[in-house]
Amino acid sequence: MKKSYKIQNLCCANCARKIEDGIKKIPGVIDAKILFMVQKLNLEVEDGALETVLTEAKKVAKKVEPDCEIVQ
Amino acid sequence: MTKKQKTMLAQILLSAFLFAVACVLPLSGMWRAIAFIVPYLLVGFPVLKNAVTSVFRGQIMDENFLMAIASVGAFVLGEYPEGVAVVLFYRVGELFESYAVGKSRASVSELMSLCPEEATVLRGGEWVVVSPEEIAIGESVRVLPGEKIPLDGTILDGNSSLDTRSLTGESVPRDVSVGDSILSGCVNLTGVLIFRAEKEFGESTASKILALVEDAAAHRSKSESFVTSFARWYTPIVIAVALLVGILPPLFGGDWATWIHRALEFLVVSCPCALVISVPLSYFGGIGGASRKGILVKGSDRLEALARVDTVVFDKTGTLTKGVFEVTSIDAKDPEFVLEIAALCEQFSNHPIARSLREGWGGTLSEDRVCEFEEIAGVGVSAKVDGVPYFVGKEDWLLQKGYSLKSVQSSGTHIYVANKEECLGVITISDRVKENAIQTIDSLRRLGIQRIVMLTGDGISAANDVAKQLGIDNVRANLLPQDKVSALQEISADARGSVVFVGDGMNDAPVMTTADVGIAMGGIGSDAAIEASDVVLMQDDLSALPKAVSLARKTHRIVMENMIFSIVIKILVMILCAVGVANMWHAVFADVGVSVIAILNAMRTLSKK
C-alpha cells in the first residue's frame, strides 16, 4: 500500500537522508523515499501496517530533526 | 526571506561585527576570552543546545554535536578566533542552504500558479465562484480575460486567444473559438469564454503536469543514489579518522594539543552537506527549468540518461512528418471508382492513411454500404462494399495474397485496391515533412549525436523520400509494431550511450518502454503518450528535442562539477590538516565555502537559458 505525506520544517538535506534511512528500518516498510526538494514522504508499507509505521516514522523524524512534522 | 531566516541573518551579522572587534582589540587573558565568547554564544548557542539534545536523542554523529565539540575544543586550546569562526561560518552555511532551497522551491512552485484558486461556474442559473476542485464534468465554466483556465474543457461560447506559455513554453498565443478544446493552465487573453468542463480539476492538464514534476523527484538518478550511499559512509569514516589523528600520534610522543587540534579540524569537514544538498537541487532545477520550456521530464534518472544520448531513433509518421497524408495520384483504369472503394472501406479506421483516403474522396460515406470490415494492423483493411469483397492495403500484403501488381513510379506511400480477382489500382499518398525537422536533425548532429535512425511502418520508397530530405541514412521501413521493438533492441545492443526514441505515442507504447529514453511529442491530451514515455514534449515541435538534450547535459555537467569539486577539496583539506599545513580556517572553508559554491552552481540549472 502506497501513501504520500507532506513534511514540514525539513531544513537540512542530510537530515532528510538520515530520516529516510531510519524509516526504511521500521518493520512493515517496503520502501520509503523522502523528496527533500518538494517536502514529501512517499511510503510503501505492508497492508494494514500504515498506522503503526506512521507513528514510528514520526518518532524517527523527531529524533533527527525535532522541528520536523509529518502531516497526513 | 522568512522571519526565522531574517533573525538568523541579524544574529550572524552582529556576531561577525563583534568578532571583528574582538580580533582587533589588544586584549589578553580573561578579557580576551570574554570578548570572543560573546559573539560565539550569539550564534553558537542554538548549536550547543541542539548538540546537547542530540546526544540525548542518540544522534552522536549529528553536525551540531560535531561543530560544538570542534568549537569548544578550540576554545579550550586557547584558539578563541577559530572557535568563533567555526560556529559563525557554520551558521552562515545553514542560512544560505535554507535560503537557496527556499528560493528553488518557490521558483518551481511558480508552476503551482498553473492552477488557479477559484473558478466561476454556472449553477442554478447564476454564476458562482467556487474552488476548481468542486466543479463536475459537464458544468459550464466562465473565464474572463486575464484569468487562468481552471479545467480542461470544450468551448461552448465565445472566442479568444490563449497564452499557453506555462504548458508549452510557446510564446505565440493560440486563437480559439466555439468547439475548440482548451486546457487548464493557459491564460485567457482577449475574450470571455464559456466552456464545458470535460475533466475534473485533478485530472486536468495543469494538475497532471504538476504531479509529474513533483513525482519526478522520486525517480532517483545514479548520481543521487551515489551521493546517498557516500554520505552514509563519509561522516563515520571522517570521525573515526579524527579519533585516530587525535589519539595515536600523541601516544607515540606527539604533542596532545597539536594533534587534538588537528582532530577537531577533521570534525569540521565531516559533514557531506555540499554534496547531499547540491545534487538533488541540481536535478530539481533541471526538471523545473525543463517544464517551463514545455519539456516534461519524468525523473532525474531520465534526465541523466538523456544527457548520455548518442543515438536518436525517430518514428516517421506524425513525428518527422506532419502525419497529414494527401492523395497525390491514382493509377487505375477507373480512378474515381478505386478512390471511392478505398474511402468506403477505410471509413472505420483511425489510421492517418484512412483519413487521407476519405478526404481525398470527399464524397459522402454511407456506412450501410459497407460490411464485414476488418483492419489488419500495419497492412490494410478488408471489407465488403455493396456485397462485393475488396482489399485495400500495402504492396507486400497483396503480394502475399497472390495478386500480381505492377510497380508504380510516383514516390510516396502506395495503397493498392483489389477485388477478389485482380488489383484495380494504386493510390499514392504522400506525407509532408515538418518544417523544422531538417534543423532539428542538424542540431542533433551538432550536439554530437551521430547515429540517427528512422523507423516506419510505411513503405521503403516513402521512407527513403523523407530520409533523403532530412539527411538520415539509417532507415528501416515496412516495420510492424513488434518489428519496431526488435529494431530498437538491435540498435540499443550496439549503442554505447543512451538510445532515445521519439514518437507520437499513439501506438508506440512498447517501443517507448524499450528505449532508454522514450520521448512523446505533442503530449497535450494524449494520455497514452504521457503514460508510456519518459519525456513528454508538450508541443508538437521537434526543436524542443535538441533543447532537451542540451538542458540534460548542462544539468549533468553541473552535478559532476559539484561532486568532483566537493569531494576533491574536502580530501585535499583533510590531508593538509593532517600534516599541519592547513588549519581550522581552511577546514571551515572546506565545509561551508564548498557548500555555498556547490549550491550556487546547482542553482544555475534553474536559470532561464
**Largest sheet: number of strands, sense, barrel closure of chain B:** 7 strands, mixed
Proportion of helical residues of chain B? 40-55%
Q: Give the count of helical stretches of chain B.
A: 21
Biggest interface, chains and residue tallies:
A-B, 17 and 28 residues
The major β-sheet of chain A equals:
4 strands, antiparallel
**Secondary-structure element pattern of chain A, one letter each:** EHEEHE
C-alpha geometry of chain A:
globular
What's the assembly state of these chains? heterodimer
Tell me the span between the first and last alpha carbons of chain B. 25 Å
List keywords for this structure.
heterodimer, A: 72 residues, alpha+beta, B: 609 residues, seven-stranded mixed beta sheet, six-stranded antiparallel beta sheet, 22 strands
What does this structure look like?
The complex is a heterodimer of chains A (72) and B (609). Chain A has helices at 13-24, 50-64, and strands spanning 2-8, 29-35, 40-45, 69-71. The relative contact order of chain A is 0.30. In chain A, helix 1 (13-24) runs antiparallel to helix 2. The mean pLDDT of chain A is 87. Chain A has a four-stranded antiparallel sheet with strand order 2-3-1-4. Chain A is α+β, with helices and mostly antiparallel strands and 72 residues long. Chain A contains two helices and four strands. Chain A is 38% helix and 32% strand. The two termini of chain B are 25 Å apart. In chain B, 52% of the residues lie in helices and 18% in strands. The longest helix of chain B is centred in the last third of the chain and has 36 residues, at 544-579. By secondary structure, chain B is α+β, with helices and mostly antiparallel strands. Chain B has 21 helices and 22 strands. In chain B, the strands form four sheets. Chain B has a seven-stranded mixed sheet, sandwiched between helices. In chain B, strands 2-1-3-9-4-7 form a six-stranded antiparallel sheet, with no helix packed on it. A six-stranded antiparallel sheet of chain B has the order 12-17-16-15-14-13. In chain B, a hairpin with a 2-residue loop joins strand 14 (380-385) and strand 15 (388-393). Chain A binds chain B through residues 11-14, 17, 21, 33, 35-40, 42, 63-64, 66, and chain B through 53, 57-59, 62-63, 94, 97-98, 101, 104-105, 108, 214, 217-218, 220, 228, 231-232, 271-273, 276-277, 280-281, 284.
